[in-house]
Design goal:
The longest helix is centred in the N-terminal third of the chain and has 16 residues. With 93 residues, the chain is an alpha+beta fold. Strands 2-3-1-4 form a four-stranded antiparallel β-sheet.
């Protein structure tokens, strides 16, 4: 089994055990400093009143993106991670 598949299985189990849905969920990403990549993340979460916060690193090479949004299920949370992982250079925290 792949590492990503294992990660998502464990995440789903943890979320289902510890979270009552619907619930607010905080996504955190690090991306290379590129406004287009920030826009890609915004487009993934562009619904449901997402609060998106961005911060540049001290060197300006990277951007931290935090997304706080109400999610309906662990499956919905994971589906957003899978969409985000398609963005080149993204790191999910």
């Amino acid at each position: 089994m792949s590492d990503k598949k294992d990660f998502y299985i464990k995440l789903k189990l943890r979320l289902d055990e510890t979270t009552t849905f619907p619930s607010k969920y905080l996504y955190k990403f690090i991306i290379p400093a590129d406004e287009l990549k920030v826009k890609e993340i915004e487009s993934i979460f562009n619904y449901g009143g997402a609060v998106i916060d961005t911060r540049s690193s001290k060197t300006g090479k990277y951007t931290s993106v935090s997304v706080l949004i109400e999610m309906e299920s662990s499956d919905e949370i994971i589906s957003k991670y899978k969409l985000a992982e398609k963005i080149e250079g993204i790191i999910s925290l």
